[in-house]
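fwd from M.: "can u put these together and see what the complex looks like"

so here's what she sent:
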Amino acid sequence: QKEVEQNSGPLSVPEGAIASLNCTYSDRGSQSFFWYRQYSGKSPELIMFIYSNGDKEDGRFTAQLNKASQYVSLLIRDSQPSDSATYLCALRSGGYQKVTFGIGTKLQVIP
Amino acid sequence: EAQVTQNPRYLITVTGKKLTVTCSQNMNHEYMSWYRQDPGLGLRQIYYSMNVEVTDKGDVPEGYKVSRKEKRNFPLILESPSPNQTSLYFCASTTSLDYGYTFGSGTRLTVV
């Protein structure tokens, strides 16, 4: 089982809709969780991090963490064509000095 | 401007010819890391460093070397590149692993 699992997509949503991106992980000791956005040909850019169970909101973005079910999700409200990118889920496993990434989900926002 | 600078951006080389990809950060970050990104495999960690003279292997260290002689620099060395090292490489740094990495612009390496 991969440490971080994401559906590669593409996930297509109409402009103005809510995009929901999901990620599951295998290590129950994981303690810090991250969402990055990567435009084609560019480097990953940190959107949000979350440590505690529940929701964390930042503008149009909401990260959700459920440690009991071992998943983390990212909601993008009022999706815009400029949100079209690959979204990478990442985590830091407890006690380890490394950050592991999923393969990313490609999001397409259709005008 | 706070940034992670990688050079070169693009590199085509031949099998067996030693090369170095440089990485420098101006944010006084303790942690630095190298990742490679391949289609269908995502970002995989090659090596990381917790501070000067402290480095450790990531998930795919074979064929790579690193050094951390100064806090700001973390070069990636391929002593004898092979075609399976053709990839997109990213350097990243952070002051804390719980805050997320800042990535450089990437180096696209082709080994022929």
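replying to her w this: The mean pLDDT of chain B is 96.
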